[in-house]
Design a protein that fits this description.
By secondary structure, this protein is an all-alpha fold. It has one domain. Helix content is 80%, strand content 0%. The chain has four helices and no strands. The chain has helices spanning 3-22, 30-50, 57-76, 79-98. The two termini are 19 Å apart. 33% of the residues are buried.
């Protein structure tokens, strides 16, 4: 399986899990909030799968997971949960797709 396809699959899983974690929360427009969360996390998986850097895979995932989570964290002012989930998800996706070494 190519790294890009693995990124799409990882992004679908990460996006679904993230949106699922938000289901019990209250939002003014819940559908928009869940869609935004899904797209944001899907993009993290896709980018990690497509990027090729000479870094360890877990570091690629961590950097891109954090970097791509910053705008949502700033807009929502929910810094800790958004950045934490982005960091952990990116770390795992990067390690799985590009290796832990």
């Amino acid at each position: 399986m190519s790294a890009a396809l693995a990124g799409v699959i990882a992004g679908l899983i990460f996006g679904t899990v993230s949106a699922g974690l938000m289901l019990p929360l209250e939002f003014a427009d819940k559908r928009v909030a869940l869609t935004a969360a899904f797209v944001d996390r899907f993009a993290i998986g896709l980018v990690i799968g497509c990027v090729q850097l000479p870094w360890p895979g877990w570091l690629v995932g961590l950097v891109f997971g954090l970097l791509m989570s910053i705008p949502s964290a700033l807009i929502t002012k929910a810094h800790v949960p958004i950045l934490s989930l982005g960091a952990v998800g990116g770390l795992v996706i990067g390690g799985i797709i590009h290796g832990w070494g």
